[in-house]
Each structure stands twice: as structure tokens, then as C-alpha cells.
Design brief:
Blueprint (H helix, E strand, L loop, with lengths): L5 E4 L3 H12 L7 E4 L3 H11 L2 E3 L2 H7 L2 E4 L3 H10 L9 E4 L6 H8 L4 E6 L9 E6 L6 H12 L2 E5 L5 H10 L1 H18 L4 H21 L5 H8 L5 H11 L2 H22 L1
Parallel strand pairs: 1-2, 1-4, 2-3, 4-5, 5-6, 7-8
Antiparallel strand pairs: 6-7
Helix pairs in contact: 7-12, 8-9
Bound molecules: 1,4-dihydronicotinamide adenine dinucleotide and (2S)-3,4-dihydro-2H-pyrrole-2-carboxylic acid.
Organism: Grimontia kaedaensis
GO molecular function: pyrroline-5-carboxylate reductase activity
Catalytic activity: L-proline + NAD(+) = (S)-1-pyrroline-5-carboxylate + NADH + 2 H(+); L-proline + NADP(+) = (S)-1-pyrroline-5-carboxylate + NADPH + 2 H(+)
Length: 272
């Protein structure tokens, strides 16, 4: 993979996850720059990852070949307005922000950005990320290849052909780790109520989640429903538990939750 200099502007949770995953994959530390308006955050990047880190978005963007916009959506306009001194024409820009379209980002920057929108998720931190990518037609194949390789270094990727697909990626992957964490939190709490200490309750849940996920990955030809059925003995305990989920309409609840995430991303497009 090409080793361009990549500056992350906004070095919070998501940027940190990608940076850590990139370093783990062997991306050279001297090619990564973290910029954060908080000196404490940039100092942490220097100390923890040994990468270049500072508070100067303009100077860092000028130095970089690729600029990853990784601030919260509500901070994006101010950031890009303050970066008006940057000549964007020679740079690939990657935005990981939810709910801001590529056209709107160019408008905020005051110039047509060569932009790839990426929707990653935090498991990038442990090189198990899932990212969806979208690029407008005018972005070159070389830039698209680089963006894809960058995210592939921290997990799996999929391209979407329409920009609206990014909102569907948010619902199915960007936000998804939080759904699984919530489910595991609920299971850990109940295991504690049933008498396990906190540590053992967490171990029971996390190992079961990890094992289930690994079985899914290891058996691409087996439907998820079949894997579920293999656990579910007729008249047994699993069937009783699944009955409760079904009676409480888990499937419909999951659909509603994912639709709410898409709706919120669409609403954000009109806010920022
Ligand atoms: N956290 C997640 O799981 C995911 C987040 N995203 C997107 O990533 C972006 C960042 O989210 P998080 O990392 O969770 O937020 P965060 O709040 O952890 O990090 C944002 C960082 O940007 C810094 N910042 C804000 N304005 C700045 C400026 N003008 N110059 C330099 N630094 C500035 C803040 O100090 C903060 O450290 C958002 O747009 C979000 O939609 C996308 C996918 C997943
Ligand atoms: O909650 C959010 O808006 C961001 C986007 C996906 C995950 N976190």
C-alpha cells in the first residue's frame, strides 16, 4: 500500500481507533499526524502512539497528502472555515463525519474537495473495524484505492454506489458496536443478579459474544438462522429465552432502531 502522509483533524475516539489500527498494521508512525484543538488530546497521541501531534490544523493539512476530517458534525463548518488557507486541490480528503454530505463539505471548505466519505466504527482500534466508503464520480481511482486500502488496514470495507448508502452503513455498522455493547451490558447485569461476580459475569458474556461472532465468520455458507437453530434444542432452555425475545418483538425493535439511526443521519444533513 502507498504510504502517504495522513493528518487526522479531530483526534478523538474514532480517529484514535483508526490511528491505533493503522500502527498495528505496520503503517509508519512518521506518516501519521494527529491534530486536536485540545493540547491534552494531542499530547496523549504523541505519548501513546509516538506520532506527530499538534493543535495546528492548517499547518498539518498543508504538510499532509491526505486529510481525514474527524471532528463532530457540529464542529465541521467552523473547522473548514478556519482552514481556508489550505490548497485542497492537491489533497485527498476523507470525511468520517455522520450526516454531512460530500457537496456540503465542499461548500463548507469553499472549494470542490477530492473527497471520499468513510463510515468506520470503533473496532478499528483492534483491527476489526467495518467501514463503508463512498466517492463521487470525479474522485480518481488512485485516491479511491488509497482510501480503501487505508480502511482495509484496520478491518473490512464495502463501497456504496449512492451517497445515501453511507447512512445505511451508519445503521448497520457505524453505530452497531453500541447495540452489541448494550446487549452485553444487559446480559452482564442479569448474570450478576444471578449470583456471578462482575468479572465472571463479564467473562461469560464477552466470551460467548466472541465465540458467536467467530462462528459466524468461520461459516460464511451457514445462514445465521441455522447457527441459531443449532443452539436451540426442542423444548429446551434456549427456546424459552428466544420466545421471550420474540414475544417482545426483538426483530421489529432492531428494525426500528436501525431506521431511527438512518432518520437521524438524514436530519443531521439538514442541520449542519
Ligand atoms: N465514535 C464513533 O463510533 C464514530 C464516529 N464517527 C464520526 O467521527 C467523528 C468524530 O467522532 P468521535 O471521535 O466520536 O468524537 P470525539 O468527540 O471523541 O472527537 C472529536 C475530536 O475533535 C476535536 N475537535 C473539535 N473541533 C476541532 C477543531 N476545530 N480542530 C481540531 N480538533 C477539533 C475535539 O477536541 C475531539 O477530541 C464524528 O463526525 C462522528 O460522526 C463515525 C463513525 C463512528
Ligand atoms: O453516533 C454517532 O452519530 C456516530 C456515528 C456512528 C457512530 N457514532
Amino acid at each position: 500500500m502507498e504510504q502517504r502522509t495522513v493528518a487526522f483533524i479531530g483526534a478523538g475516539n474514532m480517529a484514535r481507533s483508526i490511528i491505533a489500527g493503522l500502527l498495528e498494521s505496520g503503517y509508519p508512525a512518521q506518516k501519521l499526524i494527529a491534530v486536536d484543538r485540545s493540547p491534552e488530546v494531542s499530547a496523549k497521541h504523541r505519548e501513546t502512539y509516538g506520532i506527530i501531534a499538534n493543535e495546528d490544523a492548517v499547518a498539518s493539512a498543508k504538510q499532509a497528502d491526505v486529510v481525514v476530517l474527524a471532528v463532530k458534525p457540529q464542529d465541521m463548518e467552523t473547522l473548514l472555515q478556519n482552514m481556508e488557507g489550505v490548497d485542497w486541490s492537491s489533497k485527498l480528503v476523507i470525511s468520517i463525519a455522520a450526516g454531512i454530505s460530500s457537496a456540503r463539505l465542499s461548500e463548507m471548505a469553499g472549494s470542490q474537495l477530492k473527497l471520499v466519505r468513510v463510515m468506520p466504527n470503533t473496532p478499528s482500534l483492534v483491527s476489526e473495524g467495518m467501514s463503508g466508503l463512498y466517492a463521487p464520480d470525479f474522485v480518481s481511482d488512485v485516491d479511491k484505492l488509497f482510501a480503501g486500502q487505508l480502511m482495509k488496514a484496520v478491518g473490512e470495507i464495502c463501497w456504496v454506489s449512492e451517497e445515501s448508502g453511507i447512512n445505511a452503513v451508519i445503521a448497520a455498522a457505524g453505530s452497531a458496536p453500541a447495540y452489541f455493547f448494550l446487549f452485553m451490558e444487559a446480559m452482564q447485569a442479569e448474570a450478576e443478579r444471578q449470583g456471578f461476580d462482575k468479572e465472571t459475569a463479564r467473562l461469560l458474556v464477552q466470551q460467548s459474544a466472541l465465540g458467536a461472532a467467530k462462528m459466524v465468520v468461520a461459516n460464511p455458507d451457514i445462514e445465521l438462522a441455522t447457527l441459531r437453530e443449532q443452539v436451540t434444542s426442542k423444548g429446551g432452555t434456549t427456546a424459552e429465552a428466544l420466545n421471550v425475545f420474540n414475544n417482545k418483538q426483538l426483530t421489529e425493535t432492531v428494525s426500528e432502531a436501525m431506521q431511527a439511526a438512518v432518520r437521524r443521519a438524514e436530519e443531521m444533513e439538514s442541520l449542519f
